[in-house]
Amino acid sequence: VKKTLTVAIAGLGTVGSGVIKILESKMESIERKTNTRLVITAVSARDKTRKRSVDLSSFKWVDDAETLAADPAINVIVELIGGADGAALRLCENALKNGKHVVTANKALIAKHGVYLSQLAEENNVTLAFEAAVAGGAPVIKMLREGLSANNFARIYGIMNGTCNYILTTMQATGRDFKDVLDEAQKLGYAEADPSFDIDGIDTAHKLAILASLAYGCPVNMDALFIEGITRITTTDIHYAAELGFKIKLLGICEMTANGLLQRVHPCMIPVTNAIACVDGVYNAVVLEGDSVGRLMLEGRGAGESPTASAVVADLIDIACNRFTYPFSVPANALQPAKNASIDSHNGAYYIRLTVIDRPGVLSDITQALSTEHISVESFLQKGAKSDGNVQIIITTHDTSEKSMSTAVKQINSFPWAVEPATLIRIFK
Amino acid sequence: VKKTLTVAIAGLGTVGSGVIKILESKMESIERKTNTRLVITAVSARDKTRKRSVDLSSFKWVDDAETLAADPAINVIVELIGGADGAALRLCENALKNGKHVVTANKALIAKHGVYLSQLAEENNVTLAFEAAVAGGAPVIKMLREGLSANNFARIYGIMNGTCNYILTTMQATGRDFKDVLDEAQKLGYAEADPSFDIDGIDTAHKLAILASLAYGCPVNMDALFIEGITRITTTDIHYAAELGFKIKLLGICEMTANGLLQRVHPCMIPVTNAIACVDGVYNAVVLEGDSVGRLMLEGRGAGESPTASAVVADLIDIACNRFTYPFSVPANALQPAKNASIDSHNGAYYIRLTVIDRPGVLSDITQALSTEHISVESFLQKGAKSDGNVQIIITTHDTSEKSMSTAVKQINSFPWAVEPATLIRIFK
To answer: What SS3 state is found at B301?
Structure first.
């Protein structure tokens, strides 16, 4: 006798429609794998009249998604409403309390309330699943939680925001500037009307914080993250990056350092010989450095209707098969706050670009400022005077501390020959 | 109250030692994830006196591994004996029949008897797990079976043999010839004393056949595979490949074609712009082209003590958590033989290298032979006469059928000016 698992979908944007399409078109194959029939019983969204790519007529329509949490006919809630609080939170909270499984693609919600929701899920003996929250269709959460469960991680890093990667890739390929490419991305639907969440690095930070929690057994802690977006990246820097053998990417990086767990999101200069430098366009990639497995890279489409829906349906199939994991690898109350390292303690190499007035003594001022902080120069490039009489100086350094570097840069910016504040980009190795 | 899962390890080579090390050093973290204590109760290997990197004194030693199958104190057998038949098969068979879970890294065994063993596991309500059989520590089987369970696959391909990839990468990097690099690989322990299993493509074929079964719901069928190894790859071809923008890699490829399921293992010319062309040395990579998820690539170390042990222990953790999947995604008796396509029906582009006597009429003979088979030339390169008076002609073609190509090559080889049989390498796109 086949079991039935009843599913309600709250939120019918592209992902919600994608989930409906997969469940309908692959019903048979899913039944063979799970011995279970997945039945969509109810759907909910803000606007019933909106034109959608799927036929909703056979599903019960609910105006207020939150009421789904109390419907005894529903086994699983798929939450695709979005937002870290409000209706999404209340729906998930009440659904779990009422013994329903919850599948969500909502990284903001999981980053902010994931540990609390995980506790609720564990208390009520149901599943909280969020594979779709990180890296779209690439099952990095399952990999971290199950496939690589025998590993401790020295470092995990990745390109986790398709919008930023599309913008940086296009700037590199076309030489067009940030604003111009962002405008186009918005027209193409690759960037939101309000793009700040993506381009300021917040979305990447949510995803990184979730991965860090899974990898290091600590509660998600957004306050511990250093976050810097891509809005100040110029075509000039992209150009010099190429000249120096680098590509600029927005990375989320968490690593266990001598000073504690360092979580950071910022643009990086990545050597073109590093595989992740070749991950372009809307692709995402996550590299996991495990003590047993070594370096592992997973690359795939980070967003979009069907990749994200692929992850949501995989979570539903896991639930149908009763495949259980603690949402954060270990019981929520066994998560232990990490000792967090601040970005000041970061040690690494830097790219510095200066725009200076072309006059004697500048080089000596710069080298003096660097050497006072014991910063050793790796390469030095001076580009001839422009029509405005200014010159560009591009420096890459050997490893040094973030603290020394910011002190030196403050000093450099204060010189009267400095035309504008120095551009500083961390080099990733 | 914590549960206990008792484990016996049969075979104590590098992987077996690696498993013991992980289970001992990560006992606590595994307990947090599984609420279970994994206890090694017995070990077995051919030679008790052999020096090993782990202390075996606390485990029960068993001379005849096969007796482990009947020991009521054991819950899980880790089979690391190797070989498609013999002791490995009998141990797994009897262990499953006696209601024990089996974890194995043995691709030859799974390729030959996996479906039968899967049936036994299902009948006895236990797990048969073989994550370590494909791509070492990279959890490609879990990905295919669970993380991407909502996908149909147009194509799956990969570099799945570290020995071959090491040899080809080293030939490319150093210009040294096949025999020379193979000798060195044997000295370094990257290749077996009898390397034929690896270099003839059999090992890749085993892994590919397992992935094809998982992806297409058909029984593993080694007879359906076309297999060609790397023994005929020369530095000359690697050199011309680079000149044409290709790298030569041994790929395993399965794809659903208009003529049925085509499974093939052979050296490929891969455009250097393709991410998999950059997977070098002992790394493995598998690309999965799913209808929902799009193109997904997983890259990691394909062999070695700790990557393989990482996969074995992940399987043990899945068992401890009661995470169940059908070994081949669907019940063994629901697997349906695929309609298999033969290599003759393959359609693609080709690289041809000819060594010919430098005399008039040769080019016209070649172009005639190709055009009779409606093969269209994409690039043509003639290298000036060597001291022996012979010239090299390198041709790449547009897409054509394997059948047309072999007919044309047979014709070309029969001309009196042909110094040696043509070298033919398929171009991968």
So the answer is: strand
Question: Is-contact A130 A106, C-beta < 8 A?
Answer: yes
d(CA A69, CA A100): 8
Say if A33 is an interface residue toward chain B (CB within 8 Å).
yes
**CA dist B212 → B154, B286, B408, B422 (Å):** 11, 12, 31, 31
Predicted confidence at residue A189, as pLDDT, reads 84
pLDDT tens for B386-409 read 778 899 999 999 999 999 999 999
Which ipTM score applies to this complex? 0.95
- DSSP H/E element including A227: strand A225-227
The pLDDT tens digits of the residues spanning A220-262 come to 999 999 999 999 999 999 999 999 999 999 999 999 999 999 9
**In what helix (H) or strand (E) does residue B185 lie, and over which residues does it extend?**
helix B178-188
Listed residue (B81, B129, B132) closest to B300, CA to CA: B132
- Residue-wise burial string across B280-292, b where 16 or more C-beta atoms lie within 10 A, e elsewhere: bebbbbbbbbbeb
DSSP bridge pairs for A423: A353
Interface touch B148/A314, C-beta < 8 Å? yes
The answer to whether A122 contacts chain B (CB < 8 Å) is no
d(CA A386, CA B177): 52
Gyration radius of chain A over CA positions: 24
DSSP state of A229: -
User: Among candidates B50, B87, B86, B82, which has minimal Cα distance to B65?
Assistant: B87
Place of tokens 């991680």: A153
Closest residue in A to B217 (Cα) is A29
pLDDT of A142 > 70? The answer is yes
User: Is the minimum CB–CB distance between B56 and chain A shorter than 8 Å?
Assistant: no
Is residue B189 scored above 90 in pLDDT? no
Q: Which residues in chain A are closer than 8 Å to B297, comparing Cβ atoms?
A: 297-300
SS3 of A427, please?
Answer: strand
Task: Indicate if the alpha-carbon torsion angle A62, A64, A65, A67 is positive or negative.
Answer: negative
Best A24, A146, A216, A324 member to test B by mutation, with max B CBs in 10 Å, is A146
Type of residue found at A326: Y
Answer for the pair A284, A299: CB distance below 8 angstroms, yes or no: yes
Q: For strands B101-104 and B246-257, give the pairing.
A: unpaired
Strand arrangement, sheet containing B36-44: B60-62, B36-44, B3-10, B76-79, B101-104, B128-129
Cα A304 from chain centroid (whole Å): 14
For A26, nearest residue in chain B (alpha carbons): B150
Chain B CB contacts of A152 below 8 Å: 26, 29
Percentage with pLDDT > 90 across chain B = 94
Residue B182 — pLDDT band, cuts 50, 70, 90? very high
Instruction: Answer yes or no: pTM beyond 0.80.
Output: yes
Separation of alpha carbons B167 and B155, rounded Å:
26
Per-residue DSSP letters for B327-344? TBSB-GGG-----BPPGG
Phi, psi of B232 (to 5 degrees): -95, 5
* Cross-chain residue pair A309–B150, CB shorter than 8 Å: yes
Q: Is A82 on the interface with B (CB under 8 A)?
A: no
Distance CA A363, CA A359 (A): 9
Instruction: Compute the Cα dihedral for B393, B399, B400, B406 and give only its sign.
Output: positive
Q: Answer yes or no: are the C-beta atoms of B79 and B85 closer than 8 Å.
A: no
Question: Tokens in use for B180?
Answer: 């020379």
Q: For chain B, first and last CA: distance in Å?
A: 55
- CA torsion A353-A358-A363-A368 (nearest 10°) is -80
- Please tell me what DSSP assigns to residue B88: H
3-state SS, residue A283: strand
What single DSSP character describes residue B217?
A: T
